Amino acid sequence: MCAVKTSILAKIPDGLDLIEAAALPLVTITGSQLISAASGVKAGQTVLVSGAVGGVGRAAVRTAKDQGAIVIAGVRKKQLDAAKSIGADQLVALDDQAAFDALAPVDIVANTVGAATAEQLVSKVKHGGMFASVIGVPESAKSRPSVRTVAFVSKPDPETLLYMAKAVRDGNLKIPISQQLPLREARQGHIAVERGAGGKILLLA
Q1: What is the pLDDT of residue 1?
Q2: What is the pTM of this model?
Q3: Whole-number Å distance between alpha carbons of 123 and 141
Q4: Domain of 185?
Q5: CA-derived radius of gyration, the chain
Q6: Do 181 and 146 have their domain in common?
Q7: I want to staple 112 with a disulfide (CB 3.0 to 4.6 A). Which of 30, 51, 95, 176 is the partner?
Q8: Contacts 24+ apart (CB under 8 A), 4-9
Q9: Exposed/middle/buried for residue 28 (C-beta within 10 Å: 0-12, 13-18, 19+)
Q10: Chain segment 95-129, per-residue pLDDT in tens
Q11: Of 174, 162, 165, which is closest to residue 9 (Cα–Cα)?
Q12: Which residues of the chain have pLDDT under 70?
């Protein structure tokens, strides 16, 4: 049993499965706020979302499209087929150096990945543009003082959660669920996450 403030809760919309709803809170709020709060996206701007097939990335893509942005989904080569269904305007394989080099500068990078990819992505932001990240700001940003940077942490937002839940219900957003495990198998769930589960792992009581 746990107690939470009612002010941070959102009612599950009619027509949305309870299991699907359980996968939504953190990833959808984080992805949406990365665009709306951290990046300040405006209609017509070009936004590159890295890690776009992950839960946070998918929510960021959906929010950026809803705000009228031109969205580029940054993924791995092996994820290109999966990325075709997430609603982005363009796809780019960030681990394909030729494809990365050919990528034109963008107004905003909404970053959900770390390591070398994030370091490189800073170079793709236009002068005066924004690099917003849920992972932290890479060291390479110091060499681009004309690029605004923000390390973003989400906060509870029931209105956004309800909006994203309705998007899932209506088929406009899908958050992958890789496994559903009984609570007693929580250890196996953690192991699967560490190995790269490829979707949310739900523990069912």
Answers
A1: 61
A2: 0.92
A3: 8
A4: 176-205
A5: 17
A6: no
A7: 51
A8: 7/156, 7/158, 8/156, 8/158, 9/158
A9: buried
A10: 999 999 999 999 999 999 987 899 999 999 999 99
A11: 162
A12: 1, 197
